[in-house]
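Hey Z.,

So I finally got round to the adenosine-2'-monophosphate thing we talked about over coffee. Here's the setup:
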Amino acid sequence: MSEKADIALIGLAVMGQNLILNMDDHGFVVCAYNRTTEKVDQFLAKEAKGTKVVGAHSLQEMVSMLKKPRRVMMLVKAGQAVDDFIAKLVPLLEKGDIVIDGGNSEYHDTQRRTKELRDKGLLFVGCGVSGGEEGARYGPSLMPGGNKDAWPHLKPILQAVSAKVDGEPCCDWVGEDGAGHFVKMVHNGIEYGDMQLICEAYHLMRTALSLSHDRMSQVFEDWNKGELDSFLIEITKDILKFKDADGKPLVEKIRDSAGQKGTGKWTAIAALDYGVPVTLIGESVFARCLSSLKEERVHASTVLKGPASSVYDGDKDQFLEHIRQALYASKIVSYAQGFMLLREAAKEFGWKLNYGGIALMWRGGCIIRSAFLGNIKSAFERNPGLSNLLLDDFFRAAVHRCQESWRTVVATAARLGIPTPCFSTALAFYDGYRSHSLPANLIQAQRDYFGAHTYELVSSPGRFQHTNWTGRGGNVSASTYQA
Ligand code: 2AM
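And the result:
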């Protein structure tokens, strides 16, 4: 077999198949391979019939078909399967060949693999792929990171097949080693937050305002024409008006116990690991956990009392506008927090992240795609060194404009006993972040009182001292450390 394929793709589940067909549409010759090789034949006979796609029945055969440097992309189950394939590929590849992992791998694994393959002269790339089956077929958001020497060889293929917004590809080099998968992870965390915010808006509309499902759908349709224009608002509009066979809204028949695959949790864990207050994503993960305690909640609902009424008695249209603004302001906080986490990880690992480029990658092709991400891209274009999204003129003005409504919604929800964990935590973060002074001086005093952990004086930061608060015990302080 001559070396004619531009790239090999391992893993013929639906994402892999669709990405192959997408690459084929863009003129690339793809060699398809799968552990269970019957799937190769089935794919060639069915979905890939009439295309330029070729198949291989062994890794040796696959490698022999590739132009050099060889490009091998895996879209297999994250974890051991990736390591197993790497182990089998390494002896078959030559110095300078490229291995791409397009699965949902954990970024620490990608860091390890990048290093291991670099030591063997191979170029490893961990590429976040977002957009589901539809995205893979017609234009996903692609977030590649790893060994940068691979990028010139991948750029023409990955940018060709990615989603485009205003002609610009939703794919660019993210950064070194695990950066691509880290950015994909934060994307998923932000997706959790966006979904929970929409759910809180819906909860208020349904419970506080008693709106019909058609009316709620109409509200989301209207919102989708403005600054909240996004894929998730759009599908929410469709979901709310969708009727079951009996003419009733299907959404109300769905058990209110949310599942999760773990990527939101990973983001929250990273936030805790690096000490970044990514509170909204954290709350959105916990909101799912609380929802899944369905049986406990059903019991508690018969025992624990709330306010006498959870119905809002003011002007409904006005309150709907308050909710819209609360959602928008909370969303700004969520993205500001997400970018804070990216910035901290970049510092930790020495990545040079292009924040505007990341916003552009999320602008199309993926679940969080929105007009809003165009505004974020512009903010980083105006000021590439922007330390926090909230400090950008555009977003600062937006939050200032929305904050009265936002406070009204959080206060009203608390009064009516309707949980709005993400609206509330976003506002608490905003008020904390803009505070010149917080009560942490008292925490420091308490720590020093009971554990001699020492404190700094406002007048001499950096100089830690201990006080004998009780006159008992000694004057020995504990050594200072930061967990
Ligand atoms: P399979 O068709 O042979 O099961 C999504 O599950 C993709 O990952 C499929 O292509 C699947 O191959 C592959 N996959 C899952 N676990 C794997 C493993 N342990 N080794 C190799 N491929 C695996």
